[in-house]
Amino acid sequence: MRILRVFPDLKDERLMALFYKGVKAQWASDSVDWTAPIGLSEEQKTALAHVLTPVYLGEQTAMAGAGTILPQMMFAQETEAQLYLGTMLLDEARHFETLTRLYLTMDRRPYELRDLRTMYRYHHRLLQARERHEWVWGILISDLFAKHFYSTFADQFPDTLFGILSKRILVDEARHQAFSQRYLSQAMGSLDEERRRSLLALARDLLDICYELYRHLAPDTVVLGIDGDRILSNLQRDIGRKADKIGLGENVFDDEEEEEGILQAWREEIERRQASGD
Ligand SMILES: [Fe+2]
Ligand SMILES: [Fe+2]
Question: Which positions ≥6 away from 277 have C-beta within 8 Å?
């Protein structure tokens, strides 16, 4: 552990740019039009309450984890990352609170851990990552899962309440992914072989648990008409791509440009809704 510095440099311009973006992009759930149509049958509302549960718990875990890792970054003199994590913590708090409000609006409850034990395994595995690089990698994988989950609803149910919320949350999640990728790329050179292997093992374990989770939730995905196989194969592909990009693998793919197009469309839609007072 290094010595705490009172007056640190803030030199990493890319991380500082992400921090400014994170600060400026804050919103609260009371700016959402909660009278937007839910657009789901009673049976579909129950199915959404079920399939949303792991993501909902993931928002809480991400918030708590950010709080745990923040002091590690402070003592490692990673001040820019420490600042960024402050915005991420508030993002995840907002996602958690917004989804709580969604459950109340739909008059449904999430699963409890005893109803979906696999979900407990996922979070247990994620929380085993106590070292900051491992945690950022685990949270990146969870953010990728969240990305494909929310994108599916944003595409299939664009003008419903959950579709609108999904787009808002996705814009925040894109920043988290950009941060994690940048942070891990910079750190990779300093990680020894054992640490790199533990990152790959974490990815494999989390992906395996995601497949198992899907086996439990498959009947609900049928009710909603969403393609769980596609979500998981996209997740697997993206984990591979991110591993390449941060230097855990060898091939480098560039997928950011294609994502930026749809995110920009959603940002404009959010601004339009805010301007019209919806
Ligand atoms: Fe989130
Ligand atoms: Fe996130």
Answer: none
CA–centroid distance, residue 194 to ligand 1 (Å): 29
In single-letter form, the type of residue at position 139 comes to: I
Please tell me the distance between residue 91's alpha carbon and the centre of ligand 2 in angstroms. Answer: 7
42 Cα: distance to centroid of ligand 2 (angstroms) = 29
Q: What is the DSSP letter of 250?
A: S
Which one of the ligands is nearest to 92 CA? 1
The two tokens of residue 152 are 């599916």
* Total count of domains within the chain: 1
Distance CA 35, CA 256 (A): 33
User: Nearest to residue 248, comparing CAs of 208, 195, 175?
Assistant: 195
Cα of 90 vs centre of ligand 1, distance in Å, is: 9
Residues lining ligand 1 (ion), CB within 5 A?
Answer: 59, 92, 95
Give the distance (Å) from ligand 1 centre to CA of residue 164: 15
Domain of 107, CATH number, reads: 1.20.1260.10
| Segment 115-143, tens digit of pLDDT | 999 999 999 999 888 789 999 999 999 99
Residue range of the domain that includes 117: 40-267
CB-based neighbours (< 5 A) of ligand 2, an ion:
143, 173, 176
Answer whether residue 32 is part of any domain. no
Q: Do 12 and 82 contact (CB within 8 A), yes or no?
A: no
Is the Cβ–Cβ distance between 209 and 125 less than 8 Å? yes
What pTM did the predictor assign? 0.90
Read off the pLDDT of residues 207-253 as tens digits, 9 standing for 90 and up: 999 999 999 999 999 999 999 999 999 999 999 999 999 998 744 33
